[in-house]
Amino acid sequence: MITVPLLGLLLNLACDTGYTDASRQFAEPLASRGDFPTEIHEPTDFGILKTPIVDDEGKEKLPAGAACETCHGPEPDPDLYTPPPADENYHTQVEIKHGKLTCYQCHDRDRTKLHLADGTQIEFVDVIALCAQCHGPQYRNYIHDAHGGLNGYWDTSQGAKIRNNCVDCHVPHAPAFKKATPVFRPRDRYLKGRD
Amino acid sequence: MDEFTRRAALKSGAGVLGAAAFTRALAPLTEWVPTLSKDEFLQKHYRELSREDMDKILRHIESKTKKLYGADVHVQDVRPQRDMEFGYALNLSICIGCRRCAQACHKENNHDRPTGNSYIRVLEMTQGSMSLAKSDVDYDHDVPAEGHFYMPVQCQQCGNPPCVKVCPVEATFKDGDGIIVVDYDWCIGCRYCEAACPYHARRFNWSAPQIPAEDINPNQAYLSNRIRPQGVMEKCTFCLHRTRKGRLPACLEACPTGARVFGNLKDEHSDIRWVLENKRVFVLKEDVGTLPSFFYFFDK
């Protein structure tokens, strides 16, 4: 009878869910390559004020950068707590839109440094601690990898997580995330004939 | 000699028709010979393959990719780790709808260039509403737009996957770490799974993907981003060729705001577990009972 092998074949097809070679079901455990600490990206232009340079025709050329002390010198400014006058044209080229903060709430008397709210001097590279003072929820999310760009490995025994710095994405003087032009408009078949 | 009867005429007529029909029915065989080898035709289901079979198949795929696309690729059979269950969470409060994830998916997974295929659709939603029907995938203005939030949707890697249930040939199945995979060589292209998926997450290869050789991602796996043949289903695999080796998925790395959180649900110290334990998460279409491994949350 032909039905018997056929039935057997069908049953076999219907019930078989496993692997013929059981060792293929799971991979060999990944050998640990170390315990990789999270790497946080360090911008190279800390403390540099980007100022656009305009040519004779009023067209903007590449923005130049100057460190604070290039103009102000290394000596601490005696009058730190006055914002620059409104008609002063150098700093006005920087968009300052960060709540009601004034320059010296973050910048220190020592122009190569920043300071925390309690006056503790910090280096520019440690800026995250400064941001975290006010933006606690974002910092909490950040340390749990739930805020800010992330690259590399989720499994830190295989490689490091590489994190963005706050100021990679948020310009400290005007930190609101800028609107973006979306990329990669879909071309699904059913969207044909749009517009 | 016997009389030429009506019966004999019918018999011979039917015989001729039968032979013609038989020849016609076999005609496709002459068509598949150049593209489908005997070994490919006789290839077993993914789970029935021995390691030797698999190796042979992988090398064959590599040489075929070289022949058809002119690209040198490395195809592996990347298997899941034990005690692993992948989970993904997406922060709707900080997603800006830039669609970089969809673009990264397109490149990582060797999608067809002319159709701009991607496993991710980003829905522009109206604030205060969860209506998918009123969402827009085709927005073309600066984002985030006033009064809207953005919800990228991709395969939810369901715990109770309807796509797997409807597959008549078991070409799609749930793998050991929760990823729903497709054996592209076993799929018959019936598209039942596409119809069954409540998230519109599956794609069909209407034509063989066209990709310039220099754009092909050479890091490939049998179950994920190798170039799919024409006429089969495909879907997001959480980039298993990366994630099963500890790397982050391509869509997460492309996200400029960090809206995406990925990790092992079985590791209580993972970031994904922190999100599930500390954020108000929800799953899409909870009422259909699919038990997704993909979670959404709002910050505020």
- Summarize the biggest pleated sheet of chain A: 3 strands, mixed
Mean pLDDT of chain B: 94
Please compute the radius of gyration of chain B using only Cα atoms.
24 Å
Q: Going across the major beta sheet of chain A, what is the strand order?
A: 1-7-6
| CA-atom Rg of chain A in angstroms | 29 Å
Regarding quaternary structure, what we see is heterodimer
Summarize the structure.
The complex is a heterodimer of chains A (195) and B (300). Chain A is 19% helix and 11% strand. Chain A has 195 residues and is of the alpha+beta class.
Description:
The complex is a heterodimer of chains A (about 200) and B (about 300). With about 200 residues, chain A is an alpha+beta fold. Chain A has 5 helices and 7 strands. Chain A has helices at about 5-15, 70, 125-135, 135-145, 165-170, and strands at about 40, 50, 65, 115, 120-125, 150, 160-165. In chain A, the strands form 3 sheets. Chain A has a 3-stranded mixed sheet, with no helix packed on it. In chain A, strands 2-3 form a two-stranded antiparallel ribbon. In chain A, helix 3 (about 125-135) crosses helix 4 (about 135-145). The longest helix of chain A has 13 residues, at about 5-15. Chain B is of the alpha+beta class and about 300 residues long. Chain B has 2 domains: about 1-35; about 85-300, 2-Layer Sandwich (Alpha-Beta Plaits). Chain B is built from 9 helices and 12 strands. Chain B has a 4-stranded mixed sheet with strand order 10-2-12-11, with helices on one face. In chain B, strand 5 (about 170-175) and strand 6 form a beta hairpin. The longest helix of chain B has 27 residues, at about 5-30. Chain B is elongated, with a radius of gyration of 24 Å. Chain B starts with 5 loop residues before the first helix and ends with a strand. The mean pLDDT of chain B is about 95. Classes of the chains: A alpha+beta (about 200), B alpha+beta (about 300). At the A-B interface, helix 4 and strand 6 of A face helix 4, strand 10 and helix 9 of B.
